[in-house]
Amino acid sequence: MANKKAEKGKGNTNVVLYTALCGALLMILVYVFAYQRLITEAETIEASNRELSQRVNQLKIYYDNRYIYQADTETTEQLIDELLAGYPADAREEDVIMLAVQMQQSNDGEFLTINADRGEAIHTVSAETVAAAASVKYTQAIQFQDLYATYVNEVSYPGLKSMIQRIYDSDNRIGIQNIAFTKGDEENPKLSGHMDLVFYSVTGTGKEYAAPDMVPYLAGTDNIFGDIVISGESVDNNNGETENAGESVPEE
Fold first, then answer.
1. What H or E segment, with its residue span, contains residue 28?
2. How far apart, in whole angstroms, are the C-alpha atoms of residue 205 and residue 89?
3. Count of other CB atoms within 10 angstroms of residue 149
């Protein structure tokens, strides 16, 4: 009887011990998993705090130097304005022709061929980039364009220098790509050759194209390859009659 009670007590003790061990193990598992999760969350929060701290320090630097950045921004905008102000809103065939009229008017040259060909856009500032700049003046895409022009003519050397000066004095933005002339002979001492020019323009700056005023120059002729009638002068219409500039000369 005593042995049975001892075995029963021993069995109860084992149950209690197993229960305690299971409880302790469960507490350990809960502690480990909960602690691990808390550690992960703490590391995430710490990393976020570091990023926020770096951002705060960066913003503080911006704030402390805001007047310098503002002055730099205004200077940059002024430089951009000055750069774009030197370019017309567009360059067209009439600008090519008008330059030829002006160059021929101031020298003894004679143009044989004039050719104009619009090229592809040189550079484009996208509308997204312009919008990101948050500029009040510029709100659309800005595109730099070119128009190629070739002038074939005969001219004296002083006349050629006068033509080049006329190009540099032009209100348009013009670049000289190539000049090729050959020396004449005793019968025709003039230089003969061609000039390759590029007319540059920029769209998207808010400017409007201003067409050249041809009224003071052209007044009519009976031959499209003949003399150009200049305002204030007169022309012989091959019938011995004289017409004032500004009036058309009837064709034969």
1. helix 2-64
2. 8
3. 22
In terms of Cβ atoms closer than 10 Å to its own Cβ (0-12, 13-18, 19+), residue 134 is: exposed
Pairing of strands 142-155, 191-203: antiparallel
| pLDDT tens-digit readout, 135-153 | 888 889 999 999 999 999 9
What is the tens place of the pLDDT at every residue in 185-218? Answer: 888 889 999 999 999 999 999 889 988 887 766 5
Amino acid letter, residue 90: D
Q: Tokens 């005793």, residue?
A: 186
Contacts of 198 (CB under 8 A, 6+ apart): 146, 147, 148, 149, 174, 175, 177
Distances from the Cα of 79 to the Cα of 75, 82, 86, 208, angstroms: 6, 5, 11, 21
> Strand 142-155 to strand 123-125: parallel, antiparallel, or no bridges (unpaired)?
antiparallel
Partners of 142 in the beta sheet?
125
172 by DSSP, 3-state: which? coil
DSSP state of 230: P
CA distance 199 to 11: 107
What is the C-alpha to C-alpha distance for residues 99 and 239, in angstroms, rounded to an integer? 31
DSSP state of 240: S
Q: Is the pTM of this model over 0.70?
A: no
- Cβ neighbour number for residue 80 with a 10 Å cutoff: 16
